[in-house]
Model the fold of this input.
Amino acid sequence: HGPFAGVPPSNGRSSGTLGLSPVLMQIETVTKLEAAERQLTSATKLYFNDSDAIAIHTLVAASYNIIRDISKHRNASPTMIKDFFVDSYSGPKKNKIGSWINSFENFFKHADHDPDGTIKLNTEITELLLIDAWAQYEKLLGELPIEGKAFRVWTGTPKPDTASDICTLIKSMKKMDKQKFFSLFLEWYDIYIQETERKPSSA
Done:
């Protein structure tokens, strides 16, 4: 039964559809925003671990475009880079800038027109898209997962009303390398949540 009925299993063993292992055969239903969050979360973890720049950019761009499309459908404020920034130009220059921003994600996805092509990836645009994607995600959802919080702290500045001891802590943490900062932030945030849950709620 099904679209793969009659396809023989690999290695002559009957282990399911197309002979795939049970892990590969898991079926999962996700929403667009869930997919975008998981792509952003994975990209952020890769970012803090200085992992492959192409993988990071591909994940960031995919999630960015989902979030951007949903923002349009919900009449939310536009994204900063692909909307406000690009729209600040007009005519041929606007098209050129928009094409340049999209050129990296398109290059990493397709090879139909340029199978022997090359490209120089500027990772600054990756980081800017990641900043914008998390900011837009927070506009839609009203909150960020812990990875998004960590990235915002790493790339942003504390709010004016932030306590001085917290500002000092953040400033000290940001002197670390990215991987150590991320690890410490996750540890610190976990302790913070545990302490918050222990405090009795006011009547």
